[in-house]
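Q: Predict the assembly, please.
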Amino acid sequence: MVWLTWRQHRGHAMTAGALLTALAIGVILCLVLLPHLYPDGAQRCTTSGTDQSCVALLPQLGSSAWTWIVLGGLLFPTLLGTVGATTISREFEGNGHLLAWIQGVPRRRWFLRRALFLSCGALAGAAVLAAVMQGWFAAQRGAGDAIWGGFDIGPIVLFGYTLFALALGTAAGALFERTSPAVALTLVSYIAIRVTIAVGLRTRYLAPLQASTVMGTDPAGMTGSQLPIIPAGGWTTGLPVDVDAAGHTITAAVWCASSPPVTPGCYPAPITLLQPYQPASRFWLFQGIEAAIFVILALALFALAYRLVMRAR
Amino acid sequence: MSAAIEATALSKRFRRVWALRDCSLLVPDGHITALVGPNGAGKTTLLNLAIGLLAPSAGVIETLGWDPQRHPEPVLERVGYVPQERPLYPDFTVGETLRMGRALNSRWDEAATRARLLRHGIPLDRRVRHLSGGQRAQVSLALALGKRPELLLLDEPAAALDPLARRGLLTELVETVAADGVTVVLSSHQISDVERVCDHLVILSGGRVQLAGDIDALRDEHRLLVGPRMDPAVAAGDPTIISARHAGRETALLVRRHAATPPAGWRAEPVSLEELVLAYLENPAAGAPPPPTLVEAAS
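A: Predicted assembly structure:
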């Protein structure tokens, strides 16, 4: 079963292998080149401006490597989605299911072993990619990359996304029994679900912390300079909210019945400006929560695919 | 005599269409049974149910004594099946196809399978998509036989083969059965093929078993009675009359369970298998075999 699955997916494996190898070589080259170009560390190169060759080359190298890493991180799961979408549907298209399901391995085992083998391959690929990306992050830490900005290509969620995309493709393939619609549905719904969770759910895994500034009653206090400052590495998760002393949100209507212009005394004092944010310390917890969500979704989709395969004729 | 396939009140429905309905039959062990019927009679459905590719909508089917749905392992290990589509992975080489067979079947016979392909001059390094239709059929059959099956199911094995290849394939089948004692069920449109290799017959029509039994016994049971022209309405009312032809001043009746001597003025002639099968296929209402079918007839 392992050999058969490998034989049928070796093209995919080679594509993924080439992608990962290219990324790894690129990152390793950057990691080797950067210290040579600037032995005192990347930080000083970007700030001092003394070494002109470094100043010119380093950001260029860094940004192009970064682009490739982001692309790799985003594309790798969709590649596995395509693998999943073809693994079952291609069998139906070429009547291969009639060949596979009449051999000595029952359909149940045929599906479970195939799903297991592909999952292991996908997770191994994700591990390589995560290692490459972490290598890059480690080298760049001095440059002060925003940690939350790289959440979507974080090393933990990458496993969840990859497994999810594979399961989504497998279920779509079992549903349509045809490759093209299965791949299309997989890609569209993968992006839709990723965006929905990233935008709609991620900020709510834990109630955000609030950074606050007391604004007083002076309208001058409403200028930008008075906005709360969130701790370093924090992730601003929404617009700031104005609350009164009792903690009630002040809406525009309450703000000032007599606006404009805003005059002293037209709103209750003192006003506190609250800025919700997620602290940097929650990054790994959130990675874990999001990965768990996608792993659970993946298991549900594999279960659906299993049911569809067992009922197929 | 034990049954290789035993179906009891077996039904299979695809959405609103009944592919098989209330089908009861016994396929005896150690024989070559032909499954004959018009297109859409349910032959492929019956074979797919027997190996467990399909689950029955109602009724029971047992293959080699096992329910293929509840106990797929022993059935799949012991039953070789060559579907009508001859499914093979076109991008695999013949050698890789064999490797797949070895990987998926615990009773795999590598040496015999290689020898069989060698005998037919099929190179192991050729991709399946570059094989001729006849070679593909041979690879499919080799894959099914490589499992060392106790029961071999063949759906239209001779379809799309030239006459020479067809004869070769059928001859090989008979030899295999004789050598290994494999039970074979083959569906076919070619009555001449059936006559050449099969000793048992099941006629399926409209999803039901119309006639089943040992071919020699069935031929013995039926006679063509030729006599003076009779009223077609009288012939239509007699259940022992399977078909009636009225031409000129003569009437020819194909009858079952005939009297030992024909009525005065009539002569009885033996029927060929082709005449027998065609008579039943032309009259789907005829037949409905008596309950104890193959086991009794075969023993």
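Chain A touches chain B at residues 1, 3-4, 7-8, 94-108, 313 (CB under 8 Å). The two ends of chain A are 21 Å apart (CA to CA).
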